[in-house]
Amino acid sequence: MAHSLLVMKFGGTNMQGAAAIRHSASLAARSTRGGVRVVVVVSAMAGVTNGLLRLAEAAQGGDIASANDEIAAMRTRHFTAAQDLGAAPDSAAVREIRELHETLRQAVYGVYLLRELTPRSRDLIVAFGERLSAPLMALALSGQGIQAHHLTGGQAGIMTDAHFGNARPLPGSYERTRDRLGGLLDAGITPVVAGFMGENEEGAITTLGRGGTDFSATIIGKALHADEVWAWKDVDGVMSADPRVVPDARNIERLSYGEVMELAYFGAKVLHPLAVTPLQESGIPLRVKSAADPDFPGTLVGAEPDGDAAHPVKAVTAIRGVSLINVTGAGVLGVPEVVASLFAAIARENITLLMVSQSSSMSNVSLAVQSADARRTLAALRGGMTGELKVEEQPGVAVLAIVGAGMRGQKGVAARLFSALASEDVNILMISQGSSELNISVAIDAAEVDTATRAVHAAFGLGERAGAPA
Ligand SMILES: Nc1ncnc2c1ncn2[C@@H]1O[C@H](COP(=O)(O)OP(=O)(O)O)[C@@H](O)[C@H]1O
Ligand SMILES: N[C@@H](CC(=O)OP(=O)(O)O)C(=O)O
Fold it and tell me: What span, in angstroms and rounded, lies between the C-alpha atoms of 397 and 286?
């Protein structure tokens, strides 16, 4: 089908140096040359976001020397890329990169002086990664004869709430984005938007959560009523398992929005968990494509329910670094208010619950949370509870999930999962299946997660055939 408007997202791997950026620009150029209007959305160069987080922590801890060393190494990386992309030393792009680095250095010095890193200042610092790669992509596009103009997320109209580190777009944001980017497109200019970031109503920079550039691209796709959003990756598409863990993982040709959300939620790093949400209502498809093999169809994510009874499971995925929080004691016994107070305490702290299970006698409640949230969870529960209860953390856990719309109403899927785990002698600590029946998840010992993933992948035959049309 001929497209008239596409949003293309390039992740960290596709932006990691001049050669990768030039290749990414050529992928956008293939479409613009064919008469398609393209909005390009970019992530930070691979490793930069983690580097910025690290140096912000170092400055807060008083180690300004290592923070400055890390900034200097990044600066060299950005300048080298600009130079390799043909920017002259006195060009506007080089001047801008220099100014951005100077502002970054000052912000980090502020953190060092105050010894305080608030969620707001962390977002300001971490968003420099994307702000610095946008001018590089604009340079590469110019090198291909395309007139490009780069913008921050806020300049592109992305307005968010003030939930620093995990911000959500405000409803009014879509119209602003349409106004800001529509004008450029009408003038024949390719907008290059710094992903991962927006601005709150006060104009402070916010970020959309790790992997958030996917989300930026779909927000823009919705705003502009794009024909499709294309997320270019270093993998063939969304695969039946993480290819780093399962060597025979296969590309999945089609997934529904719901399936992708489950996969991302249960740890598949390939897309941001909320990335498809802006597209669901309008039914705009999301394509995950391989930058190394641009003619390969990749994965098409759309509205189709796509339940394939013969192949109920499409993928297996895992969340690592999980802790179980076990609440026990006679106080839980038959007292619904106690359980309510547990959830209220968790909600106040804004902690994500990965799994919940309650024994039928009601004398035990187990919660699975990211280990990074475990201390907060323990404190919230101990502070917010009534009655004589014991709250304990069990670290070193992983949550493994199988996902597929074809599981709905199918019998025997759970049995196959459990026997695959038993065959590898993997002990199951907790089990859950949501009423949507799009997934079944189990908590297991973290040390066994890779073996378990490979066994489950094999048991459902995912390496032979992953989500191909029936
Ligand atoms: N089910 C999966 N399908 C594809 N990739 C996966 C999956 N699970 C984990 N991954 C990992 O996600 C990576 C791609 O995501 P990411 O690095 O965030 O992309 P980018 O930065 O290019 O947007 C792959 O290198 C792969 O190892
Ligand atoms: N750079 C941000 C946002 C992002 O989406 O990156 P990537 O596309 O490389 O996953 C992060 O690392 O979280």
Answer: 32
Q: CA 425, CA 431: separation in Å to the nearest integer? A: 16
CA distance 371 to 403: 23
Q: Which residues line ligand 1 (CB under 6 A)?
A: 11-14, 43, 211, 233-235, 238-239, 241-244, 268-270, 315, 317
Q: What's the Cα-to-Cα distance from 193 to each of 109, 110, 202, rounded to whole Å? A: 27, 27, 20
What six digits make up the tokens of 102?
A: 């100077």
Q: Which of 419, 418, 428, 463 is nearest to 448 (CA)?
A: 428
Per DSSP, the three-state class of 100 is helix
Q: Indicate if the pLDDT at residue 467 is higher than 50.
A: no
Interatomic CA distance for residues 401 and 369, integer angstroms: 15
For the stretch 288-307, pLDDT in tens is 999 999 999 999 999 876 56
- Place 349 in a pLDDT band, splitting at 50, 70 and 90: confident
Identify residue 373 by its one-letter amino acid code: D
Q: What is the pLDDT of residues 232-248, one digit of tens each?
A: 999 999 999 999 999 99
Q: Give the ligand 2 atom nearest the CA of 44.
A: 1
Cα end-to-end span (Å), the chain: 22
On whether ipTM exceeds 0.90, the answer is yes
Residue 384 has pLDDT above 70, yes or no: no
The CA 436 to ligand 1 mean position distance, Å, reads: 25
Global pTM reads: 0.93
CA–CA dist 469, 185 (Å, integer): 36
| pLDDT more than 90, % of the chain | 81
Instruction: Give the distance (Å) from ligand 1 centre to CA of residue 269.
Output: 5
Domains in the chain, CATH or no CATH each: 5-234 (3.40.1160.10), 315-459 (3.30.2130.10)
For residue 332, give the amino acid letter: V
Residue 202 amino acid letter? E
Q: How many CA atoms lie within 13 A of 147 on its CB side?
A: 6
- Cα of 168 from ligand 2 centre, angstroms: 16
